């Protein structure tokens, strides 16, 4: 797997460099205001840096406890399957109930599966995450989110 990780990190670095070079053709100067190339430039730098971190990480010696696990066993296998099921349900209900409510339910489900928090904490965190996600995507980024039957 180490060889595959090295190759994938080199591809990610190359993709980041390619994005940076192509974004320069979009006149992405930071000095005179935002232009169409600013976001691709930032994403390109992020790809290049994260690819370099992944590449460097491959040359750090691994401890026995850090070796890869093929598939979780016992209780963790159930948790992985429950989470996969939760994501599938999320994808199937988001158009019906809307982004906010579907995200609230997914976060509560994830916290139920993965944590031992009290129900009021799970619900509170669900409301917080769903609210922040809705605020970021709908208000700040002006992304049209599914509102579902309830208009939420």
Protein described:
The N and C termini lie far apart (44 Å). The chain is an all-alpha fold and 152 residues long. The radius of gyration is 21 Å and the shape is flat. The chain contains five helices and no strands. Helix content is 68%, strand content 0%. The mean pLDDT is 85. Helix 1 runs antiparallel to helix 2, helix 3 packs antiparallel against helix 4 and helix 4 runs antiparallel to helix 5.
Give the overall average pLDDT.
85
N-C termini distance: 44 Å
The computed structural class is: mainly alpha
Computed CA radius of gyration, to the nearest angstrom: 21 Å
Secondary-structure element sequence?
HHHHH
Total helices: the number is: 5
Strand portion: under 5%
Shape: flat
Structure summary, number of beta strands: 0
Percent of residues in helical segments?
55-70%
Low-confidence stretches: none
Largest sheet: none
Notable traits:
single chain; mainly alpha; 5 helices; 152 residues
Show the helix and strand layout.
Elements: H1 2-24, H2 38-57, H3 75-97, H4 99-114, H5 119-140
Helix pairs in contact: 1-2, 3-4, 4-5
Short description:
The chain is mainly alpha-helical.
